[in-house]
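Hello forum,

I keep getting stuck at the same step: I have a sequence, I want structure tokens, and every attempt I make locally crashes halfway through. Rather than fight my setup again tonight, could one of you with a working pipeline run this one for me? It's a single chain of 264 residues.
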Amino acid sequence: MNPLKPRMGKKATLCVAASIWIVGTIISCPTLLFFTTYPMKDHILCYAEWPDGPSNHSRQEYVYNIVFMLLTYFLPIGSMTFTYARVGLELWGSKSIGECTQRQLDNIKSKRRVVKMMMIVVIIFAVCWLPFQIYFIITSYYPDLTKKPYIQEVYLAIYWLAMSNSMYNPIIYCWMNSRFRRGFQQFFRCCPFVRVTPDSASSHRRTDTERSFLYNGSQSPTGQRKWQTGPMRRVNTMLTSQLNQTTSLCCSSQDNPQGRPVKD
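Reply #2:
Ran it on my machine without issues. Output:
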């Protein structure tokens, strides 16, 4: 976005990461402090016993659920949506000065694909975690819902959906990003049905390097000796030898036009 703006340093990055861990630990403290178990006939019940009352009958639990939703759901979605929207507007809305080269166009397309991929990740996150967040808000207003039949199965399905969010991210990365896809292929290359495809970026770099070698070799003898190696050096050596032989024959024919033997 702002290439001339100084980037966040290592210490600042560590402070931000440490702050996130501290906030996450504080948010999880009520679960450690107020949750308890109660033995039943065929199972053990785990529930929250808040200072002002049990679970689904506590005002403190309701406030905690609201704060938990704001910090762990709406804040991440809002920040990621704002960030990726700005990047998307910059990529799709800005126009470069002059005519773009093919490499610049490919680079812009690659960045746009990354923005699309990250927006899909945000949408999947919102869909997976929304039922989990709403469940606790609804049961706080209607505590009798927890006594309905099959409510435990419904909660487990909602909980599984929320926890499965991280499972979808690698699938999205592999589907929409060639580098991630090649990384997965390298990781699972021992499997017989996995075929490792060549990296397009590496081939482009190799082609550009070969072009640079050819350019340097054709412009100066020093560059030719320095850069050209292997088969290229052998080919150029043969061409140079043939050119020298041809030049020698031409010079000899000019000095002796009748084809007479030359005496020492």
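The radius of gyration is 34 Å. If your local run keeps crashing, start a new thread with the error log.
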